[in-house]
């Protein structure tokens, strides 16, 4: 956090994917900025509330309990995600459903579950809003990544649609679309690729600033959109990708 970072004193925040690279960093930065935060993940972590986002009943239960524990909610950050590369011939219905459930269905259902609390927050002038991590894969076609790309494209447009629905209640809904971040996710995804794929297809993109970003660079964009500094921004997609060119 820098001196110019927004303050979140007394703001009540939920972060999914809290055991992961981006989610864990985001929980820490929100707390450093004065927020009360409940982090959740399917993987256990210190202070992380267990919830499997593939389970719609678990989402409802988690949302109800978290809002009760926080005494309301001002900010929902949908960060949890999965990414498994696959060639067309290797795609399974189970993998399609997994990506859709975690990357698209869960953020939509969680937003639905906490919407009344966010409406109350906005009405009280506490800035109720949602920030969802999509990806540059939501708008760029990528070989062997069709399952992930489709799920991220879905959540991006889903969230932009919800921004219009919730605008009357002054609840803002935005996305951040990162390029490569230095977390286990892209490395694990790449390791699972078969050796005989056409690597030249994967190498077609480059970025103006080389290398993966630290998670904090993406979190800074989330913090900005979640803060009052972004009070006139809704329905947007803030791309944080070091200038990717395809
Ligand atoms: N790392 C990248 O290069 C990159 C690039 C663009 C977008 N993203 C997106 O950023 C977000 C954060 O990813 P990350 O890089 O921190 O990866 P990560 O793997 O470190 O974190 C993702 C977290 O989501 C959790 N998760 C997965 N399935 C879940 C489920 N069923 N229920 C609850 N939690 C579940 C995982 O346990 C993990 O802690 C994701 O939405 C990802 O798609 C990542």
Describe this structure in words.
The protein is α/β, with parallel strands linked by helices and 246 residues long. It has one domain: NAD(P)-binding Rossmann-like Domain (Rossmann fold, 3-Layer(aba) Sandwich), CATH 3.40.50.720. 42% of the residues lie in helices and 15% in strands. The protein is built from seven helices and nine strands. The protein is globular and about 55 Å long. The two termini are 32 Å apart. It binds nicotinamide-adenine-dinucleotide. Nicotinamide-adenine-dinucleotide binds next to α1 and α5. Nicotinamide-adenine-dinucleotide binds at residues 17, 19-23, 41-43, 52-54, 79-83, 102, 133, 135, 178, 180-181, 183-186. Keywords: Oxidoreductase.
